[in-house]
Amino acid sequence: MSETVTIIKPSSKLQFLNLKELWNYRELIASFVKRDIQVRYRQTIIGGLWAIIQPFSTMVIFSFFFGHLAQISGGGVPYPIFSYAGLLLWTYFTGAITASSGSMVASAGLITKVYFPRIIIPISATITGLLDYLVASIVLIGLMLYYSIVPTSLIFLVPVTLILTWMLAMGIGFWLSAINVKYRDVGYVLPFFIQLMLFVTPVIYPSSIAPNFKFLLALNPMTGIIDAHRAMILGGLPVNWGTLGLSAVMVLIILLTGSAYFKSVEKHFADII
């Protein structure tokens, strides 16, 4: 009786995200996400409350130094909720790229033993933080009630900004996780890079604060996304659709190039990881 032998070879063509392949491995992605969530909060005293503590404590500090002492405007809304609406998305974004950048190295034992599409590892790492975003949104709802802020119908478009942030985190995660397999400097450079990015992203200040550098700020894809995210939630701020559209284009470029680079080098992962 003859046996069927399947030979897996890397493609010689330029590849991007294979949505059909990802769908076929959806159960494995869900398993990785569940594992990451369990590992994150294992043996912690307050568990998922850490998802609230980080953005909330940062908001309190920023409100005192930037809102109270530096008198930075919240663009027509109270500074605490202005900063928290930005920090909510920013915290998810930075957590997602940090987790995805080290995901391949963290899964070294699995990569060298079993075949599966390697790209699902950084993807699952970016999904995990979405739960933290939802949990931390409870504080935002409380702040909106406290400041009597009534959202408009635009709040139903908030998932669009969240999806764009997730796609951007995936794209950057593809680049960083693939590079990190060979060069472990990524783990040292990334925290410094995130700190710098915070000050060139309108998280703690409105983008209108620097009109002369508006175009340069718009080149940061998170600028249009965070501005739109904040405006859609708080209602009293205008949504800059042009900047959001530019951000969406840059997100797509980063996602496609990141996935193409990851696919082009993944055949070497098991040998050098």
What can you tell me about this protein's structure?
- The chain is mainly alpha-helical and about 270 residues long.
- It has helices spanning about 20-25, 25-40, 50-70, 80-100, 105, 110, 120-145, 160-180, 185-200, 215-220, 220-235, 240-265, 270.
- α4 runs antiparallel to α7 (about 120-145), α8 packs antiparallel against α11 and α8 (about 160-180) runs parallel beside α12 (about 240-265).
- The chain is globular.
- The two termini are about 40 Å apart.
Task: Supply the key terms.
13 helices; mainly alpha; 273 residues
Strand content: under 5%
Specify the biggest β-sheet.
none
Helix content: 55-70%
Q: What would the principal axes of the Cα set say about the shape?
A: globular
Q: What is the mean pLDDT?
A: 88
In angstroms, what is the radius of gyration? Answer: 20 Å
Run of helices and strands: HHHHHHHHHHHHH
Indicate the low-confidence ranges by residue numbers.
none
Number of domains: 1
- How far the N terminus sits from the C terminus, by CA atoms, comes to 38 Å
Number of helices: 13
In terms of structural class, how would the helical and strand content be classed?
mainly alpha
Question: How do the strands and helices of this protein lay out in sequence?
Answer:
Elements: H1 19-24, H2 26-41, H3 50-69, H4 79-101, H5 103-106, H6 108-111, H7 120-146, H8 158-182, H9 186-199, H10 214-218, H11 221-234, H12 241-265, H13 269-272
